[in-house]
Amino acid sequence: MSNRPAQASLRVLTVNMHKGFSLFNRTFILPELRNAVRAVQADVVFLQEVQGDHAGHSERFPGWPPVPQYEFLADEMWPDFAYGRNAVYPSGHHGNAILSKYPIARYQNLDVSIAGPERRGLLRSVINVPDVDEVHAVRAHLGLRENHRRRQLEILCELVEHGIPANAPLIVAGDFNDWRRSATPRLRRAGLLEVFETQYGRLARTFPARCPVLPLDRIYVRNAGVHAPMVLPRRPWSHLSDHAPLAAEINL
Fold it and tell me: Is 0.90 topped by the overall pTM?
């Protein structure tokens, strides 16, 4: 991804952090994950399952950062970030985050949890990109149950259709847990196009990372084009996440 288009564009990355641990929580790999994320040199990073705080991990795991994981990843490379806390428990909380090279003018975390212990959210941000003005970004993580996803998709589509200016560039990325491939037709009616389907005629397989079979992770756009979407290679990513990350150049 070294050759960038001449027109205004954003390089985006979406990755499931798994709270900084390897598969089955066997190893704390956050420093290695940070190096891999930084190597992509994305302008905007969509993060899922980010540990915002945990009371006991700093004592248990050497190298646990003194700041929230999204700040640890952002460091000096992404001066602006937004965090949406979804799951809260006695020891801490986790959620979704967006890291941005450009200023985040405002953000809002929408709780789209339906019922039961699953906590889900839509993290909406507005990013001020030079020569483009406002670019809207939504980090999505939908539920495991189909009836929950159906309702969450309706909430997302309502946001897209009525809560975001119709002519504004929009990027929606995340884990849709949509192994039945039923989300894209509804999102298409809201004006959203999935970048892999647009470019290659099919959704990208991302889960499980070691041998991807299911197209759970997506990048959708509205009022934007796409250049060179790619599933990032198994090495080192299959060791760093249970979902294969996605990257793409979004033309604005």
Answer: yes
Q: What is the maximum span of the chain, computed from C-alpha positions, in angstroms?
A: 49
pLDDT digits over 136-151, tens only?
999 999 999 999 999 9
- pLDDT tens digits, 151-202: 999 999 999 999 999 999 999 999 999 999 999 999 999 999 999 999 999 9
Q: Going from the N-terminus, what domains does the chain have, and what CATH number goes with each?
A: 9-251 (3.60.10.10)
CA distance linking residue 215 with residue 100, whole number of Å: 25
Q: In this structure, are residues 94 and 86 in contact, taking their beta carbons and an 8 Å threshold?
A: yes
Transcribe the chain into DSSP letters.
-----SSSEEEEEEEE-GGGB-GGG-SB-HHHHHHHHHHHT-SEEEEEEEEEEETTHHHHSTT--SS-HHHHHHTTT--EEEEEEEEEETTEEEEEEEEESS-EEEEEEEE---SSS---EEEEEEEEETTTEEEEEEEEE--SSHHHHHHHHHHHHHIIIIIS-TTS-EEEEEE---TT--HHHHHHHTT-EEHHHHHHSSPPP-BSTTS--B--EEEEEES-EEEEEEEPPHHHHHHH-SS--EEEEEE-
Angstrom CA distances, 232 to 102, 120, 179, 184, stand at 23, 25, 20, 22
